[in-house]
Amino acid sequence: MMCLSCYSYYPDTLASCPVCGTPAGKTERPSLNNAVAQMEQPNVYEPPKYKKRELLKLTELRSIRRDLKAIAVLLYIQIAFNLFLCFFMKDYDILIDIGILLVLALLVRYKQSRVAAFLICCYTVVNFYLAFRITGKPNGWLLIVTAFYAMSATFRFQRIWKYYKATGKVEYNPPTKYRKK
């Protein structure tokens, strides 16, 4: 027999529906709202919700994680070299530059900050220009390369993060135009 309330089947020997409890002889049709309310919802897979740091730890984004680590190492090496020059030349004004560069390098590495990458880029271009004007030699070119590398990696990660927030999908090369879910 079929229950007219919840549309489930049960044996004719039962006096009422085992699912919803409606008496067996009831002939009135239920409202659509009751039927929909009593239907089981299908199990829908929902992908996990990641925070920014958790998203970066996924294996799909291993290359961006590696790039950010390489950028930080290059900046730390350049900071150590400047620190050595600071004490070797006894020019302690360079400590301010070292502190600024260290803070920006940490922000790029641990917060994936596009602003910090852009500031490193501006800082290095200005220092390169000033050093070239004073000495006539191109000093600090490695820092410029590192800064543009940092901008590339942080902007790429932010594009992936925005795409993930809009669609819930993790893609290494997300499309530039997409629809939000």
Description:
With 181 residues, the protein is an all-alpha fold. The protein has a domain at 60-166. 59% of the residues lie in helices and 0% in strands. The protein contains six helices and no strands. It starts with 31 loop residues before the first helix and ends in a 14-residue tail after the last helix.
Concise synopsis of the structure shown:
With 181 residues, the protein is an all-alpha fold.
The N- to C-terminal Cα distance equals: 42 Å
Mean pLDDT rating: 82
- Count of strand segments: 0
Helices and strands, in N-to-C order?
HHHHHH
Cα-atom Rg, whole angstroms? 31 Å
What oligomerization state is this entry in? Answer: single chain
Spans of at least 5 consecutive residues whose pLDDT stays below 50 are: none
- How many helices? The count is 6
Which structural class do you get from the secondary structure elements? mainly alpha
Residues in β-strands, percent: under 5%
- What is the 3D shape? rod-shaped
Question: What is the fold's blueprint, element by element?
Answer:
Layout: H1 32-38, H2 52-56, H3 62-89, H4 94-111, H5 114-135, H6 141-167
Helix pairs in contact: 3-4, 3-6, 4-5, 5-6
Task: Kindly list the characteristics that best describe this protein.
mainly alpha; 181 residues; 6 helices
